[in-house]
Amino acid sequence: MMATHNSTEESAGGPVPVYLVPWDPDSQEHVDRMKLQRIACGWKVDQVDGWRETQRKGQSGLHWVILHPDHPESPSRLKSHLAAYPGEAQALSDTCKAILGRPHKPDPLVPYFHPVGHIALDSVTSVPELRTSLADGILSLMNFYISSALQNRGLGGAAMTYCEKMAKEEFGAKAITLETIANSECVPDSPRRIALKRPVLAVTNEDWYTRHGYKVYAQRKVAWVDVDETGKEWPTGSSMLRKELV
């Protein structure tokens, strides 16, 4: 049975700030909310309907990021999120029946929740370089989003730590891999960054993952293509990172 939330679970500093609840691909409310969050994220909203099938097949392990009800800052954080995204005011129900091919039993203590992000732990991906294989003990982190109203508060790191713990303890994973935009695409003088009017980041995605124990092992020169406001296409390079789960 898939573990979810334990209201007594605590970290060294008190109650953990977040936990994860599986996304239900058969719930229209879950699907609609995922589309809202992908719009807020800025991309892949057109892929949500396709995720329904991969989630049903146990290939995708898409989870909602939920604020822990026992954490003292959760009420104020939820208020900030809903102020920024009033369309997400309706609570969802934990209705998912299975995740990554395993039965899921909803936590009766938390029948309703307001997701403030989502994260996927996938057993099948379309990128060979990620080496995703549950049989080989390698799962891949995908489609990671935290509400823009709650970023830089440690919730992303907490969600990733929870995901890593779940990968190891529930699925016997030995490692997690992921793909993110390469540092070379984010430098101040990058023609791509300038053309797309992307901000200069204080901390790049690649550096953020590196700080959390992930190491670059490969790169792709063209991972995807972005289009600027003039219609010009910009091939985008990526880095592959891996973390051993010890």
Care to describe what's here?
The structure is a single chain. The protein is of the alpha+beta class and 246 residues long. The protein folds into two domains: 1-173, Aminopeptidase (3-Layer(aba) Sandwich); 178-246, no CATH class. The protein is 26% helix and 29% strand. It has six helices and 13 strands. The longest helix is centred in the middle third of the chain and has 17 residues, at 155-171. It starts with 9 loop residues before the first strand and ends with a strand.
Strand content: 25-35%
The CATH class designation of the largest domain is: Alpha Beta
**Uncertain residue ranges:** 1-12
How many extended strands? Answer: 13
CATH architecture label name of the largest domain: 3-Layer(aba) Sandwich
Rg is 18 Å
In helices, the fraction of residues equals 25-40%
- How do the SSEs run, as a string of H and E? EEEHHEHEEEEEEHEHHEE
Broad shape: globular
GO molecular function: acyltransferase activity, transferring groups other than amino-acyl groups
Protein name: N-acetyltransferase domain-containing protein
Pfam families: Acetyltransf_1
Organism: Xylaria bambusicola
